[in-house]
Write a structure and sequence with these properties.
By secondary structure, the protein is α/β, with parallel strands linked by helices. It has one domain (6-322): Ribokinase (UDP-N-acetylmuramoyl-L-alanine:D-glutamate ligase, 3-Layer(aba) Sandwich), CATH 3.40.1190. The chain has helices at residues 38-48, 63-74, 125-130, 146-157, 177-188, 198-205, 210-219, 258-272, 276-291, 303-312, 316-322; strands at 6-9, 13-18, 31-36, 53-60, 77-78, 82-85, 92-95, 105-108, 133-137, 163-166, 193-197, 224-228, 234-237, 242-245. The strands form 2 sheets. Strands 1, 4, 5, 6, 9, 10, 11, 12, 13 and 14 form a 10-stranded mixed beta sheet that branches. A 4-stranded mixed beta sheet has the order 3-2-7-8. Helix 4 links the parallel strand 9 (133-137) and strand 10. The protein is globular and about 50 Å long. The protein starts with 5 loop residues before the first strand and ends with a helix.
């Protein structure tokens, strides 16, 4: 078994994106098929930046499951820890794309999804303990046996640098918000980095005001607290530093993948030992680049693209280069 530098755990599947934008799904007639699932796409984004990444997840014993594994490998992410569930289908997710701010997801994950069937037997223990970075998300806590397996992995690892909790609040996956609060609080006992938007912070620590939320995360023992504020930019705090970065200028095509690009660049910056300000600036920029593109997994930027946009102050520099 290989010990990879980065291990992400949780959701994967197939994203079906309309190839016609500014249409409701009722009106769309052509679609594209893309790798999906936030933790998997975070791994793709980090791999695009040169990091050694693997994802622990599950797929169905079906054509989509076979394609997911092929696509993971094509995009540079190891599928060594992807198991095949013989009873459940690989999940499919549709997105409606109506810029600048309407990108709802429609999840087809019933009665459950293979990525929520992670058990103790699936855990790659050496990678869990020795990876330079492990990434877990809130969605993976919503159902057993995935929740218990996440907690076992976190106990195996301890509060080891870097253990990242992406709060990733998806209310449609939960039956009980109070249970989500308890489970988020438990995972925060292990996290060295926590990242989420204001709504996700409210679930995790009962605070939606960015500064108070970041402070509450630091009080839980997190070393780097990141609060994404949409159009108002991103706030990050450590014990000694407060960083506020405005949004990067971009022409919005599809905002659905911005968080995954942000996450992959966060992973890369942490592994490279960048200062927090540099990490957040680059992550914000990566999110803006993917927002300016239709797809998510196959749209993840290179470090050269991130640096060019940072220098120019707009993602339009990439559009100009393609013209």
């Amino acid at each position: 078994m290989t010990v990879h530098d980065v291990l992400t755990i949780g959701r994967c599947g197939v994203d079906i994106y309309p190839l016609q934008t500014n249409c409701t799904l009722e009106e769309v007639t052509t679609f594209g098929k893309f790798l999906g699932g936030s933790p998997t796409n975070v791994a793709v984004a980090a791999a695009r930046l040169g990091d050694d990444c693997a994802t622990l997840t599950g797929v169905g014993e079906d054509p989509f499951g076979r394609w997911v594994r092929l696509e993971m490998r094509r995009l540079g992410v190891s599928d060594e820890f992807v198991f095949v569930d013989p009873n459940l289908n690989t999940p499919v997710t549709f997105c409606e794309i109506i810029p600048p701010d309407h990108f709802p997801f429609f999840f087809y994950r019933q009665p459950s999804a293979p990525d929520l069937q992670i058990t103790s037997e699936h855990l790659p223990r050496e990678t869990v303990k020795k990876a330079k970075l492990m990434w877990v998300s809130g969605t993976g806590l919503c159902e057993e046996p995935s929740y218990a397996s996440h907690i076992e992995a976190l106990n195996l690892r301890g509060r080891t640098t870097h253990t990242v909790f992406d709060m990733d609040w998806r209310p449609m996956f939960w039956k009980d918000t109070s249970e989500a609060r308890r489970r988020y609080a438990e995972v925060l006992e292990f996290a060295t980095v926590a990242v989420g938007n204001r709504e996700e912070c409210e679930i995790a620590v009962g605070e939606s005001h960015p500064d108070r939320a970041a402070d509450a995360l630091l009080e839980r023992g997190v070393e780097l607290a990141i609060v994404k504020q949409g159009g108002e930019g991103t706030l990050a705090k450590t014990a000694t530093e407060r960083i506020e970065i405005p949004v990067q200028k971009c022409t919005v095509m599809n905002g659905a993948g911005a968080g995954d690009a942000f996450g992959g660049t966060l992973v890369h910056g942490l592994l490279q030992g960048w200062e927090p300000r540099r990490i957040i600036e680059a992550a914000n920029t990566a999110g803006a680049i993917v927002t300016s593109r239709l797809e998510c997994s196959t749209a993840m930027p290179t470090e050269e693209e991130i640096n060019r946009v940072l220098a120019a102050g707009t993602t339009d520099i990439l559009l100009d280069a393609q013209a």
